[in-house]
Amino acid sequence: MKRRKVRIALLFGGRSAEHEVSLASASAIYKNLDRNRYAVTSIFIDKAGRWRRVGSPLLPPEKLQNGPSSSFLPWEAFPSLPRRVRADVYFPVLHGPYGEDGTIQGLLEMADVPYVGAGVLASASGMDKAVMKVLFADRNLPIVRHRVYVDVEWQKSRKAILDLIGKEFPLPFFVKPANLGSSVGISKVKNRGDTERALAWAFRYDRKVIVEEGIKGREIECSVLGNDEPRASLPGEVIPYREFYDYRDKYLDGKTRFRIPADLPAAVVRKVQRLSVEAYLAVGCSGMARLDFFLEEGTGKLYVNEINTIPGFTEISMYPKLWGVSGVPFGRLIEELIRLGLERHRRKKRCLDRLAR
Could you read off the pLDDT of 76-104 as tens digits, one per residue? Predict the structure, then answer.
C-alpha cells in the first residue's frame, strides 16, 4: 500500500527587514525536501502581510508578489486556516518581527495546527535580546555587560544616557535594535562622537535598543536540535571580512570565511555544546536554534551572545552546515525538524485532552 505523503505548508517572506533572507532560506529548504515523502504547499507572505499560495519559493520576487492566485490576510482565513491550507505541519521560515517573534506561532497555536520550531513564548523571548539576556542570567550563563534603553527614555534623557554609556562602556562597543536579527541596524562604536548616531540608527528599527560591551576575540556558533532533550552540533567559527559579521557580510558580499568545524580544543568544544543546550533550555526552545558566542582573546572566556530560534537556512548558513559536519545532512535535518514539530503538537494535545476529562 502506497504511503501518503506528509503535507508541508512552507511559510516564507514576511513583513520584516529580513524578508529577502527568508526567501533564500525557504528556497534551500524547498530544494532539499524529499518529494517522495513530502507534498509542499508554498505560502508567500508579502511585505504588507498578505498571504499568497505560490508555486514555489524559487519563483522570481516579482512573480511572488504578483502571482495569479488571490491573496488573503491571515485573520480572514482564521479559524478556517486548516481548511484553507491543508497541511499536516506548517514550517515557518520567517526571520525577524512578524514571524520569528511569536506572532505567527500564536496564530498557528490558535488554529491548533502542528508547526516546526519554537513556541510562542520561546520565539518572543528569543527575538528580544534584552529578555533573552535576562533568561540567560537567570541560568547563570556568562553574558557580556549591557544596558537596555527604550525610545521614550532616549528622547527625554539623551544627554544622561550618553554620559552613562561613556562612563560604563570602553571602546569599542555595540549598539543593536533589541528585536532584529541578521545584524540589521547594528553599529560598532569606535569613537565617542559616534554614540548618538549609533543609537539613533538603532531606534529607526526598534523602540528598544541594547548597548553591549565589545569583546575582542573569536565568533563561535553552535546549532541545537531537539525538544525536551536537545543535542548540540560541533561548533563553527565565523571570520568576518569586515570588523563584525554584519548584514552585508552575511548575505551580499560572501567574503566572510568560516571554519566548519571550528579549530578549538576538545574541552572548549564540549563547553560550547553544554552552554548551547543550557541556553536553549533557558529560553524554552523546541525544534531548533543557533547559539552565538564570543571567545575572548587572552582570557579564553566564553560568553553566550544570542540565540536565534529560526536560524538562516540558506546554502551558506551555519545552522545546516554545522549539522552537516556533525553527521546530519540537510535533507535529514529537515525531516527531523518536521518530526519534532509533529511530536511537540501531539504531546501538547495529550496534555489538553487530560485536562478536558
Answer: 666 666 667 789 999 999 998 899 999 99
Predicted structure pTM score: 0.90
- Cell numbers for 87: 497541511
Per residue in 178-221, pLDDT (tens digit) is: 987 657 789 999 999 999 999 999 999 899 999 999 999 999 99
- For the CA atoms of the chain, what is the radius of gyration? 21
What values do phi and psi take at 242, rounded to 5? -95, -165
HSE at residue 227, side-chain half, CA atoms within 13 A, is 16
- Return mean pLDDT, the chain: 90
Closest CA to 54 of 88, 10, 17: 10
248 pLDDT above the threshold of 60: no
- Tell me the C-alpha distance between 352 and 116, whole Å: 19
Residue 265, by phi and psi: left (phi above 0), alpha (psi -120 to 50) or beta?
A: beta
The answer to whether 6-115 and 146-213 have equal CATH topology is no
Name the DSSP letter for residue 262: -
Exposure string over 320-343, b if 16+ CB within 10 A, otherwise e = bbbbbebebebeebbbbbbebbbe
Which residue from 153, 157, 201 is spatially nearest to 177, judged by alpha carbons? 201
Using DSSP's 3-state secondary structure scheme, residue 318 falls into: helix
* 247 close to 216: Cβ distance less than 8 angstroms: no
**CATH code for the part of the protein at 146-213:** 3.30.1490.20
Q: Domain-by-domain residue ranges, the chain?
A: 6-115, 126-142+216-332, 146-213
283 or 61: whose pLDDT is higher? 283
In angstroms, the CA 296 to CA 275 distance is 15
The domain defined by 126-142+216-332 folds into: D-amino Acid Aminotransferase; Chain A, domain 1 (3.30.470)
Give the integer Cα–Cα distance in Å for 340 and 117: 8
Strands 38-45 and 6-13, bridge-based pairing = parallel
Q: Quick one: what percent of the chain has pLDDT higher than 70?
A: 88
Give me the CATH code for the 6-115 domain, please.
3.40.50.20
Q: How much is the pLDDT for 69? A: 58
The predicted pLDDT at position 53 comes to: 86
